[in-house]
Design goal:
Helices cover 36% and strands 24% of the residues. The protein has 227 residues and is of the alpha+beta class.
Length: 227
């Protein structure tokens, strides 16, 4: 009886082992299948990297790069134009009417942000007058009364003293009689008073804010250094 029982137990163990092995087989087969799929996928990726582009793909890629380059140029042009139009721009002195402050051909930077009706006395501005762009110093402010008498400048009845041109002014021009500026006008003069076409002359007269381009904020020396 014991032998029969032992035989039965052995049979059960053997059947269980066979059953377990049978259940494990699909897992092993799946693993092999996954390995096969992975290998094929890797081979596909490697093959994609080594594949040469067709002529049509190369043309499309070239066109895309060109469009990106052109877009960068257009954006740069627009931003530069807006900056020059509304913020600041370079201006080169032409002549000696502002000597000794500025020399001929000297480069300046003018800003356009400041309210053109809010400039200060002695500011240097660039404006359009006599069909050209001129650079002069602000002497009379909006609302001022300006007169040149006996070689001296008088503003609102008081003598205007300055360090820029300490000499007597030889030519008073239209300022020989008192000039009253409106709320949008400036009286300007060049620092080289005896060689400057400015508000003393009828060709220039009072400078209206609408004709002003901007105010000088930087001046470069001949060697490229700030002065």
């Amino acid at each position: 009886m014991k032998n029969d029982k032992n035989n039965d137990d052995n049979n059960i163990i053997t059947e269980s082992a066979e059953k377990l092995s049978a259940e494990e087989m699909p897992v092993e087969e799946i693993s092999k299948t996954e390995d096969k799929v992975n290998v094929e996928s890797d081979n596909n990726e490697e093959s994609g990297e080594e594949r040469e582009l067709t002529d049509e793909e190369k043309r499309a890629l070239t066109m895309t790069e060109m469009l990106k380059y052109l877009r960068s140029i257009v954006i740069t042009f627009i931003l530069t134009s807006l900056f020059v139009l509304f913020v600041a721009q370079p201006a080169r002195v032409n002549g000696y009417s502002m000597f000794p402050t500025f020399n001929d051909k000297q480069l300046t930077i003018i800003e356009k942000i400041t309210n053109k009706a809010k400039y200060n006395r002695n500011d240097v501005i660039v404006f359009k007058g006599n069909n050209e762009y001129l650079i002069k110093r602000v002497i009379g402010l909006p609302g001022d009364k300006v007169k040149i008498e006996n070689g001296m400048i008088y503003i609102n009845g008081e003598e205007f003293t300055e360090d820029v041109y300490p000499n007597l002014i030889g030519y008073a021009g239209r300022a020989e009689n008192e000039i009253t500026l409106t709320e949008k006008e400036y009286f300007v003069m060049g620092d080289n008073r005896e060689n400057s076409l400015d508000s003393r002359y009828e060709q220039i007269g009072n400078v209206n804010t609408s004709d002003i381009i901007g105010r000088v904020i930087f001046v470069f020396g001949k060697t490229g250094t700030f002065e």
